[in-house]
Every structure is written in C-alpha cells, then in structure tokens.
Amino acid sequence: MRNALACCLLGVVAFGQSATPQLGNNDAIRIHEFYRLLPQIANQAWPDLAQTPAPLLLVTQDTEFLIHYQNPPRDFQKIADDLYVRPRHFAINLLATFPAFGPPSVIVIGQAEQTDAKTSTPWLMTLMHEHFHQLQDSTPGLFDAAKNLGLAHGDETGMWMLNYPFPYDDPELVRSYQKVRDLLVTTLKSPDDKVFQSLARRYVVERKKFFGQLALDDRKYLSFQLWKEGIARYVQVRSAETAAQYPPTPEYAALPDYESFANYAANARTDTLKELQESDLAKGKRGIVYSFGACEGFLLDRLHSDWKNGYFQHLFTLDPYF
Questions:
Q1: For residue range 159-205, what is the model confidence (pLDDT) as tens digits?
Q2: Disulfide: which of 45, 75, 91, 288 matches 284 by Cβ 3.0-4.6 Å?
Q3: What is the pLDDT of residues 90-103, one digit of tens each?
Q4: Residue 212 within a domain
C-alpha cells in the first residue's frame, strides 16, 4: 500500500493538472521516505509502533494535503489514491499530533523549511516522534485518563498541556532540578557498569526528593510531560539510530538539504544529552521535558531492558520505574 502511495505522490507532482493544487517535489520525496522507512525501523524503536496508523496532514502556504486518512472530511478533494487536498486551515509552522478530524490522531506538520526541523532528515525523524504520539493516542481510554488528571481547570481545548502554571521560576525548585539534572547526565556518561549502578541508585533517591517538593498537581503535570513528550523524544533518537543502517532512496539522497541517516544518528543522542546538561528550568520551562524524559528513557534501557512492556500500564508517569 505504501509503495502504491509513493507512486501516487510522485505521480501527482509530475502529471497533475495545473488547476489542481500540487504537492511539491521535495515534499513528495520526504513523505515517500517516511512511509518507506517507517515499517523498517519503527518496531526496533518501540514495540508495535509500525502497526499504528500514520495519517499525516502536510500544511503548505496555501494548501493542506491529507494522506493515509480514511473517510476525510467533506471539504477535502481527492486528487489521487489516498491523497486529498483543501485550502489551508492550520499554521504553516505547526508541528503537532491530535485527532484533528476525530480519531485516529493525525500528524499535522508544516514543510521542513517552515518548522523547527528546517531540513529533511531532522524533519523525517521528527515525524517518528509524532508517530509515537499516534501510538500513545490510540491507547484505549487515554483521553479520558488525561481529563481525569484534573489539570485542565475548565480548559476544553487541550491547551492546558502547554500552558499549565507550573512553578518553573521557584528558586528552590530550580536548584533541585539542577542537582537531579547533573546527576542524570553523570550517570548516563558512566561507561563502567559498577559505577553506573551506584550512580543510578543515587539518581533514584534524588529524583524522589525533587518530585517530593512538588504540589500534587504540579507533580502530575511534570510526570505527564515526561511520559508523553520525553519518551516521544527518546523514540525519535532510537528511530534515528535504527535508521542509520538503512540507505536512503536515490531521490531522497538528491535533495539539496540531504543529511545521511547515519550522520544524524551519530549526533542525536549526544545532542539530547547536551541539551539536558545545558537546560535551565526557569528559562527553558516546559521545554526541558524533552531531553529530561528522553534521557530517563536512555537510563531505563540500562537499568530495566524490558521497561517498555509496562509503559502503557502506567499512564502519564515513569515513577514506577524509579
């Protein structure tokens, strides 16, 4: 099915009539590469990830292109098998995953140049991050469970996930975060297993102290973000490391902003570790959860090799592992 989609994508670029909105050549190649690579690497990054539906809405300057979505809304026009268009509704730099048209959740993403990814390979691996959100969102009862956290305080839009009033600027909490952050970095950098195990035990103690300082709702919010966004970043890194062994298609390698999967993968983990090391709770605010949660995933790989098996049994918290 995905090979057929690839032909459709490239065919629409080459042969579509000028009156119909056209998918750009670079966009078509990137999307083709995502769907080609997905079944090869996804399950190595996370169990059963490849079996999760991956509908995608690409947002361009004037047009939105919907792919792999059954029964699209009526305002979409079919231009090829499994490819639909409508005038643009969303921001061109959007990068999010949510049930935009009802379930299943859709990756809604701008063109690489318009997003924080900027270039093709980071954009492609960001899609793997967002695809993990599709797996999270497909968990039965997840949206009701999120509501039951009691953190929305009347917000029905879901924006509480971004705007929750967490005490990022609290001086004592900032100092405590720095301590647990530094210990996590030091632990992950330890190549000696005995030293690692000793540092990991210390980290568990300091982590409990850090979370123990938080009010109940604040603790639930930070745990939610680490579970959701931090582990999605972990999957992004693991996807890159897995993709390093796969050659790209000639079309993808010919893109003007091409970066090999191996080159991106060589830096993905160290860049995330560096991001954590340089993170500041007061300045970075919610942004710290990406590297923090991802690095806890790296830690769990060394502490509990089967930790992923229990991930969906403990919604919105990594506490049971620590």
A1: 999 999 999 999 999 999 999 999 999 999 999 999 999 999 999 99
A2: 288
A3: 999 999 999 999 99
A4: yes
Q: Is residue 155 part of a domain?
A: no
Q: Give all strands of the β-sheet with 95-98 in edge-to-edge order.
A: 77-80, 83-87, 63-67, 56-59, 106-110, 95-98
Angle at 296 between CA 131 and CA 294, to 5 degrees: 35
The domain of 103 spans 2-137
Fill in the amino acid letter for 50. A
The 10 Å Cβ neighbour count of residue 65 is 25
Q: In Å, how far from its chain's centre is CA 34? A: 14
Element (H, E) at 66: strand 63-67
- Give the Cβ contact number of residue 73 at 10 Å: 12
2-60 per-position pLDDT tens digit: 554 555 565 455 334 457 898 999 999 999 999 999 999 999 999 999 999 999 999 99
**49 and 192 fall within a common domain:** no
Between the alpha carbon of residue 57 and those of residues 44, 46, 52, 170, the distances in Å are: 25, 23, 16, 39
104 and 197 together in one domain: no
Q: Are residues 126 and 197 in the same domain?
A: no
Is residue 195 located within the same domain as residue 282?
yes
**What is the identity of the amino acid at 43?**
N
In this structure, the answer to whether residues 294 and 190 fall within a common structural domain is yes
